[in-house]
Amino acid sequence: MFKTIFYQPMLNILVMMYNIFHDLGFSVIALITLVRLILWPFFTKSETSQKVIAKIQPEVARIQKENGKDYQAQSKELLALYKRYKINPSFTMLFSIIQIFFILALFNVFNIISKPTFVNYLYSFLKHITSVNYIAFGSINLIEKSILLAVLAALTQVIQGWLMIRNTGPKDPQRGTLIIITLVMPLVLLSLYNKLPSIIFLYWTILTLIGIIQTTYIQKHFKMPSEEPEIISQDKLTS
Question: Could you state, in order of their start, the residue ranges of all structural domains in the chain?
Fold first, then answer.
């Protein structure tokens, strides 16, 4: 199912783009850009929710402190708080899972296209394509190793991580995890230099660069949503 729904259609779109650009490097960029554009509204909503959650951390901390171990009351007040600011924390988690599926699908696509057997995944109307030229931008062989692309992938990962850390508050529970990811991921990418074709590092570099552009745009245009008026219950009025 994962093959049919996700990476086989993407692989065929990549090959169609190769037919247009006649350069695998530009085709990779075009496919990743297309996927990012499709996910743009959901990415924007997720990033905005994270920024709002970071801004209201003092209120979250107050609710947790006031209710102590009364987790039911805590949950009720937190849900009311999120409703006031028109955010849905569960959406951010759901979108993260969806993004992982797309990232894995793209990884499979670029891994498959780097082998001659990619023709086995093509739809019938593309069966006439039996090979692709792996030389991208006139000089980079995308099925060979490239320290340049590996370093670029690591650097863009550091920049994206720094932007995400800057987007969190000092007491944000995600901050520690983001710092660890920002430090570890570039090292992981560099350690895989000898094991993966350079097309994977091109993919990761472009994916991260577009993510940086999206994050920067959202941060620049972010506006704290206006609160919904709090509905005062009859119990509070009579107390």
Answer: 2-223
